[in-house]
Design a protein that fits this description.
Helix content is 10%, strand content 42%. It has 2 domains: 89 residues, Sandwich (Immunoglobulin-like); 122 residues, Immunoglobulin-like. The protein is elongated and about 80 Å long. It has a 6-stranded mixed β-sheet with strand order 17-16-11-10-20-21, with no helix packed on it. Strands 3, 4, 7, 8 and 9 form a 5-stranded antiparallel β-sheet that branches. A 4-stranded antiparallel β-sheet has the order 1-2-6-5, with no helix packed on it.
């Protein structure tokens, strides 16, 4: 009787060991999907890049990003990568569109689906307050705008007025922290044939008289203003903020597309 019990126990133990081994093999065959992140869709121009960490003890045969934008049917984008870091891109969609996505990572015979993630296009507002007028030059006919903030800014739709008249509206572009936008007057466009066509403002600019230049966000709120109401003397080169983006205005040498000269002996007077 005791021998039968021992034999039965031994058989049961072997069976359980075999079952545990099968479960373990299946677990090792399945990919792991973690650290899912996506960039922000601020506007209808922004495609969204999705990244994830994907690993497995066996070969990963396929990684797909499956997404559904609004009422559209589900679509699939192949994700590519190396060293366990994979990425794929969801195309741009209209503002207000809710996009739901998940990742499917496949090994031989197994597919792991991640949790669903969602975002809404335009849900995160753009902070334009990092933009500032930085340098004006009536001799070489240019205006410089600077990103003094810590975040990149989608500039599409920001605009410039000179003496109360619209003279420029920004195209779709990104201005990163510490970067500049350089705008030339259309009066000197022939002298700057290599300059991008979208970065000319439609008026002149003089160093010999009062002038008001104002920067606006896409909704028409003023971001910055250079308002020289009392003309005192001609600028030999530029009116510049020192330090860039935040300082007072000084007469300095011209530094287009670059950090302003640290010249603070001659402050601009007559500003409102």
């Amino acid at each position: 009787m005791n021998m039968k019990k021992i034999a039965l126990f031994s058989a049961l133990a072997l069976c359980l060991a075999g079952f545990a081994s099968c479960v373990e093999d299946k677990v090792y065959d399945v990919a792991s999907v973690s650290e899912i992140k996506n960039t922000v869709a601020y506007t209808e121009d922004d495609a969204v890049t999705v990244t994830a960490k994907i690993s497995a003890l066996v070969e990963i045969t396929k990684v797909e990003l499956k997404y559904k934008a609004g009422s559209e049917s589900e679509k699939t984008v192949a994700m590519t990568g190396s060293k366990n870091e994979y990425s794929g891109t969801i195309p741009a969609a209209a503002v207000g569109t809710k996009v739901v996505y998940h990742i499917e990572a496949s090994t031989e015979g197994n597919t792991m689906c991640s949790q669903e993630v969602s975002y809404t296009v335009g849900e995160v507002p753009i902070d334009y307050t990092g933009l500032a007028l930085n340098e004006l030059n009536g001799n070489d006919k240019f205006i410089e705008i600077y990103n003094k903030g810590k975040e990149e800014i989608r500039i599409k739709g920001i605009s410039l007025q000179k003496d109360g008249k619209d003279v420029w509206t920004a195209p779709s572009a990104i201005l990163r922290p510490g970067e500049f936008i350089l705008l030339y007057s259309t009066d000197v466009q022939a002298d700057h044939a290599e300059h991008p066509a979208d970065y000319f403002f439609g008026s002149g600019l003089s160093a010999k008289k009062a002038v008001k230049v104002e920067l606006f966000d896409p909704k028409g709120s003023s971001l910055d203003c250079f308002n020289l109401v009392n003309f005192v003397k001609k600028a030999s080169a530029s009116y510049s903020r020192v330090p860039d983006g935040t300082g007072d205005w000084y007469f300095t040498s011209a530094t287009p597309y670059a950090k302003n000269a640290n010249e603070t002996s001659d402050k601009v007077e007559g500003l409102e």
